[in-house]
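COMPLEX REQUEST
Ligand: MF3
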Amino acid sequence: MRASTLKSNDTCWCGSGKKYKRCHKSMERPPVARPVRPGRLSPWREVPEAIGRPPYAVSGDPGPRRNDDAVKSPEQLVRMRRAGAAAAEVLMEVGSAVRAGVTTDELDRIGHEGAIARGAYPSTLNYHGYPKSLCTSINEVICHGIPDDRPLAEGDIVNIDVTVFLDGVHGDTSSMWAVGDVDQASTDLVRVTREAMFLGIDAVAPGRPVNVIGRAIEAHARAHGLGVVRAFIGHGIGEAFHTGLQIPHGYEPTATTTLLPGMTFTIEPMLTLGNPDHVLWDDGWTAVTTDRSRSAQFEHTVVVTEDGADLLTVTEDGRSAAGPWLGLPAV
Ligand code: MF3
Ligand code: CO
Ligand code: CO
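STATUS: Structure written out below.
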């Protein structure tokens, strides 16, 4: 694969409006030494009969994304806090197993069993046929990496994305981990992406258009010379894993849906060191940057409150893998 899909005279990916050769071309890195490659998948993991399943668990088909039900009832929100807390607990449990030599399949096993231990169904399993119980996205993988027999290696950065279905609703959250010592650019990428997620959450308030979220995220990414992945967006969530409500991570002037108290959705920005364009592997899921530059992502499920937003994917005492909300207590 070529180092980049952009030619010298094309407009740069970063939104500066300049030609690529006058902008980020000079920052192009040599091809990565150890690109992430598809590995071998372990057999399908079973879920005990007693665990409540989402409607797609058998067929693999969640049906069309629906727009109704954007604002949740207090009763639904109680259940979403429970599902969110379970997702947060499972994510921290999986994250504590990250070290060089551990396969992403082992992380999947821990996440699968962690969900079941809490009476929850791992939402990704058979969602549109997805074969595993969580996503693991390493280095240049933007999102939806499928756990396999690849061991984590010193210097990797990895996103772990956990969604669980509990009491009839989903909670969806992800965080980044560094494996041993990682290079400075990757460390900065992870830090800025985390900040971008919380700045996006800070922008949420009732009465505002949904595009204030992406505007805040994009401004922070731009200030640090990072790319914003636009192809994958945040989403409404509740009784469905993904509803019709779209949460862009870059500024979209036309995304003017008004935020209302009780709306629940994810904010899950993906930022890149280079070009944010992606290509899918033949597995139909794994999204990697076209220039193989590294990508980072954080995700929380949030609810719009009377004056801002509240995190749903935190433990009962307010903890999450992403840590405190810009230095403040997470709830
Ligand atoms: N958890 C992902 C999200 O944030 C969705 C993963 S769906 C899967 O929306 F099928 F790829 F697992
Ligand atoms: Co999500
Ligand atoms: Co997710």
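REMARKS: The longest helix spans residues 74-95. The first strand starts at residue 121 and ends at 122.
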